[in-house]
Amino acid sequence: MRDILFGDKKGIIKFFIGIVFSAVTTILLQLIFTVVLYAVSPASQLSLKAVLFILITISILNPILYLISRIFRTGFIRDALSEIRKKIFEIVLHKSYKEYFEHPTSEYLSRLTNDISQFESNFFPVLLENISAILVYIFSFGIIFINNRKIALGLFSASMLFLVLTFFLRKYTKELQLGVNKTNSKLMTIFSDFLGGLQELKMNLVEKAYADRINWNVELNEKVKFNQQFLYSILRIGKEFFSIVTPIIIFYIGIIHFDLEISSKLLSIVLPFSISMFSSISEIGFSYNRMKAAYDILDGYISEKTADDYDIGRDFRFEKEIEIKDFSFAYDSRKILQSSDFEIERGKKYLLLGKSGSGKSTFLKCISGMNKSFSGEIKYDGCDIRKISLKKYFENISFLIQDVFLFNDTVENNIKLYKSESEELYQKIIRLMGIEKITSDNNPYLTLSGGEKEKVSLARELIKEPKLILLDEMTKGLDEENSRRIEDIILSGDFTVINATHKLIKDIHIKYDYVIQIVDGKIRLMDSASYWRDRDEK
User: Is residue 287 located within the same domain as residue 358?
Assistant: First the structure.
């Protein structure tokens, strides 16, 4: 986090120049108050023209300095927020499959939107307030010190004591901010579920019940925000009260108990700057807690450790076989899959069969490298899958699931995935898939049929020219015509296929070379002819 905020040296210099200008505007406003008080005091030697000239000059100069301050500060803040968002996005991208699914998708979305917005409102403006307050405090203390050292030292001691006391509220401030972030994340999850499952809610006539759940969480979210804002309001009221009352009390004690002599001239100069001094120190204490809380929360996200193994490991090679040896998979110490030893040959087609919930998806995730928490060995041309670079691995394999995801973009970009693929290869793939007429569609997620989406998804994988294609119930929701078309395309390629399904079309699936069957957690391999013969005999 520190590298992001302080890495741009020129940006930091401009930002601090902007803060100095902002502090100057505050000091100039304080000078207006001081000039007016001094002008009406008996000891004043200023003429009315001089007073008016000073007030008009400051009134003109102040907005100009404020505008310059904004120009210098805005660019740095924009760039810093952009880099923070990129960094969090990069961390999410580099999470392993297991790490990513430790949190709901909506939480990552909340980090990239709500939490950064909270940081923007609770860090940069508060940082500006803090640094401006420090400069104003130093200037005010200097003016008072020049006029009366005893008063200056008394005010300094009291202000430092108050500053120490405000730091005890830091933990509570951070807890409030974390509470807001958590409720925002939960609310985003609920809204995401609502939008994704609206059809189910309507068909089951439970809109009212779900709306009650949403309303309860909205009220909770607003209550947490109210508590936070209420605390800040109380602290701000206390700060303003303290800023005015404390200097007056110190002056009273000095005059009554220490026989401190203060002329009207001295009072007109020292009192405004005393109030300014205490207002600044209280701003530093309270604002720092908010700023530190916002910083710590985002710093926690950016400091998250990831597996970072995406591009680490050996090159991927699959010219001969995938060797599966002593394979088993357990969940919470309960073994759910166990396999005999067998090989998957390069270029062959394998049908993966089993009832729903039998472990087909889990087996494919282990084969794909997405889940490496299995026992035994899965070797590609003799190299353990755990030692292969995931980047090299995913360059050579494709994994398609039944829940097709398409970006809100053109069909062409959904297939090419924003890469500079060969136009000749692209045209060949879309002809093969029979989707030439829909490639100009700008919003395929809304306008394409289920079968067309499946074809776009498969085209996206075929353009990679993979050595291995893994399919998990890809044709489950399709009619027989579209299922046959996709199966024919899969069987016609020179790549290896492992196709998990429980929707059998005999005249198509009999063309597969082998069948991998999962029954009661046991995985076994048999040639296709033997499987169909045994099935027909039953």
Answer: no
21-62 confidence digits (pLDDT tens): 888 888 888 778 777 777 776 666 777 788 888 888 888 888
How many domains does the chain divide into? Answer: 2
Residue 4 DSSP SS3: helix
Measured between alpha carbons, how far is residue 500 from residues 361, 363, 371 in Å?
Answer: 8, 10, 17
User: What is the pTM assigned to this prediction?
Assistant: 0.62
Residue type, 335: K
116 with 83: CB under 8 angstroms?
Answer: no
Can you tell me the distance from the alpha carbon of 44 to that of 52, in angstroms, rounded to the nearest whole number? 14
DSSP state of 496: E
User: What per-residue string of b and e applies to 189-204 under the rule 16 or more CB within 10 Å gives b?
Assistant: bbeebeeeeeeebeee
- The one-letter amino acid code at 233 reads S
- pLDDT, tens only, 381-432: 999 988 888 778 888 888 887 777 787 778 888 888 878 878 888 888 888 8
Are residues 217 and 276 both part of a single domain? yes
Residue 365 placed within a domain: yes
Given CA atoms 506, 508, 510, 514 in this order, what sign does their dihedral have? negative
